[in-house]
C-alpha cells in the first residue's frame, strides 16, 4: 500500500513545477528587449574527462582496475539570459547507491532564476540549505519582493542487500518541496519559509524487510529568516523554525493527541497522530561594526526533537551562548579576535548525565602585505559532566574534561620581479591536548600531540622551473604509549616550449615508530601536462605508494595507478576595438 495523500500533494507539486516553467518562459520573452544591445550569444566554461588504471597487492583493493569519468560546466548567454549548467558522468554510478552521475542547469535573467536537474537551493539554515535535489526550482527577486520555490527528489530508493559484505544503507524514495516568501534584500529582509518532505513506500515491502530496520519519515518545517540593519554598523539576525516529524508507517488506527484532527481533516501537508514529534529551533545574533572593530553576541537553541530533512546534518539538543570581539590595528595589518561561549545539552532533562561546555578562543594575525605573515591561535574546550543525582548528594558520575589546541604559522617570502624569482619559507607548529580530571570512578587520562613542519619553495618564472621541500614531524602520546612520525616530501616541475609542455615529479618518505613496531611509507609519482592553444590540456600521471613493517618478513604492500586526463576551456571571444585592436 502506498503512503497516503498522493492526490492533493500531486496538485501542489504540479503547481510548483508549472510556476517554475512559466517564470522561465517569462524570462525568455524579455530577451527581445536586449537585441542589438549585447552580444547575441556568449559561451564560457569547460569540459573534462579522465581514464584511470589501478593495481595493488592489497587483499581489499581501494579501487576497481579501471574507471572513467566525464564532467562539464558551461554558461551560455543569449541576449542577457544566462544559462549555466553542469554535469558529471562516470562508471562509478553503478557503485554508488545514491546518484553519482549528476546534471543540471540554472538559467537566469535579470531578477528571474530557475533551477532544473540536480541542483541546490538555500532557503534558511533551519529549513532547507545545502540539500541536493533532482527537480525544478525558481527564484524571483523583483525589487524588494523575494520568492523562491522548489520541488524534487531528495533521495532515491535503495533496498537492503544481505548478499554483500559492503556497508549498504537502505533508503526510501524521498520527495520534497519548499516555498519562501519575503520582502527586502540580502542584508535586510524578512522571509517566511515552508518546507515539506516525505518518504514514498509500499507497506508490504516495509513489512517484508526490504529496507532493513530503516523506517520511513515525513517532515514539515515552518521557519522565518530575518536580517535587519537597526543602525549604521548594527545588524540583527534571527533564524527560527518549528517542525513536525513522523517516523514509521501510517498506523491502521490513529489514537492519542491529534487523532481526531488527522482523521477528520487528512491534510495533504502532514498527518498528525501518535507518531508526531514537535520541535523548535532558534538561532539569533546581534553584531556591531565600527571603524574596524566588530562586537557580536549569538544565541542558539535546538530542541532534541527538532528535525528537518532539508539539511544533511546538524547538532540537536544544544543551547549555546557566544560572544566575540575582533579589531584591527596598523591599517588592519594586525588583526586580533577573542571569543567565549557556553554550551549545554539535555534541554528536556531526560538523561542521567548532563554536559556543560565552556569554549574560548583567541587569535592574532599579522600580514605585512608583501614579505611576512604570522598567525597565532589558541582555543580551550572544557566540559563539565555531572550526574542528575547531584541534588540527592550522589557522585555517581562527575567528570571534568579539558581540550586545548594552539597553533603558530609563519610565512616569509622574497621576490625579485626583474628575474621573476620567488623564494618562500614557512613554519607551522601545532599542539593539541586532552585531559580528564581524576575522580573516584574515573582515572586520570592525558593525551597530547605535537606537529611541526618547515618548508622551502623556489619559483623561477623565466625558466618555468619550481622546486619545493618540506620536512614534517609529529609526536602523539597516550598514557605510556608514544607514536612518532617524521619524514620529508619534495616536488619539482620544469616547463618547456614556453611552458606549453610540463614535467613534474614528487617523492615522499616517512617513518613511523611506536610500541607496536616501526613502519615505513613511500609515495612517488610523476607526470606530463601539455597545453594546446590555451584551450586544450592533456595530462598523464603515474602514482606509486607502499608501506612496509620492519618486523614483518614480507616486503610490504603497494598500490599503483596511472591516469590520463583531458580538459578544454571555453571563453567568450574578445571584441575588437574600433581601431581594430
Please explain how this structure is put together.
With about 575 residues, this protein is mainly β. Among the domains are: about 45-65 and about 465-580, Beta Barrel (Porin), CATH 2.40.160.10; about 330-460. The protein contains three helices and 27 strands. The chain has a 26-stranded antiparallel beta barrel. The longest helix has 24 residues, at about 5-30. The model is unreliable at about 1-35, about 95-100 and about 390-395 (pLDDT under 50).
Main β sheet profile? 26 strands, antiparallel, barrel
Strand content: over 45%
CATH homology superfamily name of the domain at 46-66 and 463-581: Porin
Total DSSP E strands = 27
- N-to-C span: 71 Å
> What's the helix-strand series?
HEEEEEEEEEEHEEHEEEEEEEEEEEEEEE
**What level of helicity do the residues show?**
under 10%
CATH architecture of the domain at 46-66 and 463-581: Beta Barrel
CATH class of the domain at 46-66 and 463-581: Mainly Beta
Secondary structure category: mainly beta
Low-confidence stretches: 1-36, 94-98, 388-396
Coarse shape: globular
Radius of gyration: 29 Å
Q: Would you tell me which CATH topology of the domain at 46-66 and 463-581 applies?
A: Porin
How many helical stretches?
3
Task: Looking at this protein, list some descriptive labels.
581 residues, mainly beta, Porin, 26-stranded antiparallel β-barrel, 3 helices, 6% helix
